[in-house]
Amino acid sequence: MTALAATAATSxxxxxxxxxxxxxxxxxxxxxxLLRRAVHSALCLAGTMIILxxxxxxxxxxxxGVVQIVVYTGAVMMLFLFVLMLVGVSAAxxxxxxLKGQRWMAAxxxxxxxxxxxxxxxxxxxGGFNGLAAANAQxxxxxxxxxxxxxxxxxxxxxxxLLTVAAVGATLLTHRERVxxxxxxxxxxxxxxxxxxxxxxxPAPGVYARHNAVDRPALLPxxxxxxxxxxxxxxxxxxxxxxxxxxxxxxxxxxxxxxxxQGRPTYPGPKDPGERALERETAGEEEAARxxxxxxxxxxxxxxxxxxxx
Amino acid sequence: xxxxxxVYLAALLFTIGAAGVLIRRNAIVVFxxxxxxxxxxxxxxxxxxxxxxxxxxxxxxxFVMVVAAAxxxxxxxxxxxxxxARHSASVDxxxxxxx
Lengths: 310, 99
What we know:
Number of helices of chain B: 3
Distance between the termini of chain A: 77 Å
Strand content of chain A: under 5%
CATH topology of chain B: Helix Hairpins
Shape of chain A: elongated
Radius of gyration of chain A: 35 Å
Oligomer: heterodimer
Largest sheet of chain B: none
Helix content of chain A: 55-70%
CATH architecture of chain B: Orthogonal Bundle
Number of strands of chain B: 0
CATH class of chain B: Mainly Alpha
Number of helices of chain A: 11
Shape of chain B: elongated
Largest interface: A-B, 86 and 72 residues
Largest sheet of chain A: 2 strands, antiparallel
């Protein structure tokens, strides 16, 4: 077991491993800091942690290497991703600076700290590795356990208490007391009628002849998009795919050709609501004047036939 | 290869983490950078353990991991609570006591 790694002498293989994996670890760290999306940062950090686990294994810390993978990349990073999911994945960092020049100052401070550390380490002279051959003689885990439960047993107990307190604290912090009682369905209905906003169900999205995706707003009879038909989440993110004006124009052209073909009056295109209301009144008067004459049915089939012919 | 290389690498990662804590505004990313710093410290402890030929360094690293786990649990709970209160995870928005 100890012959595998963590010997006093370091092999060329270990040097190669160090330089290759170390580069990747630093890149992962830089990615964590520099990438704008929090999810990308989390993935970079997970990569760095896996590489650190490999370094632990190479240094004879077999138990810690496995714990690093299980606890850090397995549990802690998943917890991070879980909270990111709760808080909103799309939440990118804002580029607005509250304090002027704070970012540059921070980068400068980081650089200063880095030089200080590197120069400080450069002053130190160390020998080679002593190696863990003697310490790991009975295996890494039994050796760690015998140390943990004798020399460090008090610290171990305290850490146990800390974990318990942390678990209780987390549940206490995220627990929400319900201040008022839940509204029943009947109370909600009464409230909605009193408020007078949107009594019937909202219109369904994408009831447009060509697109039935949820991010396409339905079209009102005059061809203008119905914003209410798209989910509020998509609306607030600005992910509504507008029925483009050229598409509306194409539709109007088809309508017009159909009308010409059948000798109907031409379709005037989308109108604003005021004009529409006015027209409805005049239409009602005309209807009364015509007195029960059967109106021409809306010929949707004609449009389709025209399209198929092309 | 000298054992000091591991210490250099850990110093580099620690610096990157510290700069990240100062630069980033998203509380969750700040937290991740703190994790990076803790991990860098662990790497030095493990390297020192091998350097000196005893396992005390590994025990220290083990305790650091446990404390980091407790810290993550409480910290993320605080972030979730802050997010519920002000619908943002940006550390700039928590400025209620600013003059």
